[in-house]
Automatic annotation (TrEMBL):
Broadest EC class assigned to this enzyme: lyase
Localisation per UniProt entry: Cytoplasm
Pathway: Amino-acid biosynthesis; L-phenylalanine biosynthesis; phenylpyruvate from prephenate: step 1/1; Metabolic intermediate biosynthesis; prephenate biosynthesis; prephenate from chorismate: step 1/1
Domain annotation Prephenate dehydratase: ranges: 134-311
The keyword Isomerase appears for this protein: yes
MF-aspect GO terms: chorismate mutase activity; prephenate dehydratase activity
Identification of the protein by name: Bifunctional chorismate mutase/prephenate dehydratase
Amino acid sequence: MSEARTTPAPSAASTCGKVPAGGIVELSESRAKIDAIDREIVRLFEERMRVSHDVACYKRATGKPVLDPVREAQKIAAATSLADDDFKQFIPPLFGLIMEMSRTYQHHSIDGPTSLSDFVAHISKGATLPESPKVACQGVAGAYSHIASKTLFSQAKIEFVSTWPEVCDLVEQEEVEFGVLPLENSTAGTVDRVYDLLSTRGLYIVKAVTLRIDHNLLAKPGCLLKDVREVFSHEQALRQCDEFISSLSSEVHATVCKNTALAAQAVAASERFDVAAISSKECAEIYGLDVLRESVQDERNNFTRFVCVSNRPFVSSDADRSSFLLVLPHEPGSLYRVLSRIAALGVNMVKLESRPIPGREFEFMFYVDVESVPGDAAFDQLAMQIPPLCDRCCYLGSYAEISR
């Protein structure tokens, strides 16, 4: 009978690679060595950056561009060849970052502060927004944009227009102080047209609010749920209430309106008593309708984020978020370089949204939200270090965001 064999448990040394010839080194000794190496790395990095300044002066005198991609590729390849096989894979990203920092420093040496860093340096911080401004929003009374406007400014003088571009027109022409636009919905995603307007109109986000969207079925007094044969609402609201609409009689059909408030308005004006609207409770009060059924949306956690825009930047005392539009070089690693720089500065990124660039096939711009505002040391570094990595870097504003 053969003996049972057991496999010995791996030792601590076997799970951590090879044991040094002299045995395991004390942690404090290893840390002391790392501290000494780090001091030398910093000294050499500073020396390299000073030499980069000499390079910048030469390029400024001769009109040469800061970026020489052929030279950089050669440098990275040469540095990689110097490394042991165990570490070759780490050399390209390390030297890529060093060279990006060198370019940033050269740009700063040649051109001074970037236009963005110079711009944000002159923004007044701690601004107080007016309590009763003129505000433009799309739709009619009771629309969710109207509710967002009243949430942002309780005493606002509201001007209603038919389209989002008209909202921007009134702000640009200074006929109103602010405009309110829907930016994204938790179930339907981003409102692409509004993002396009932000990228082209030169307006600034100065405040934001996230509203819980609560859809209700409204009808004329006396109309019962069993009487409804047609439901009016915005296309998106109808999609968000698809299960509820399907649960009604098979004879019920949906009709698309420009927005939920116009749907309620149409029901109130109709001579029929078999029509209903999916809209807000505010619309029931405004247009004299009854609420036949509350909260008819399929997804209970349904939120829409609205932004308040101005033709000049305001940074309120409670602002804690900033937004940027970035157009990056169409080359490998361009987005990574920006994101790694944001991370290296210790800034929390809370949103990253891509949008196609019109006229440029399969190329994208990016909308980035970060938890940092002008006046923060990290933000000031962002404003200086990010633009050289971009074909275009557009500051969209700094603001506080509230929820209701």
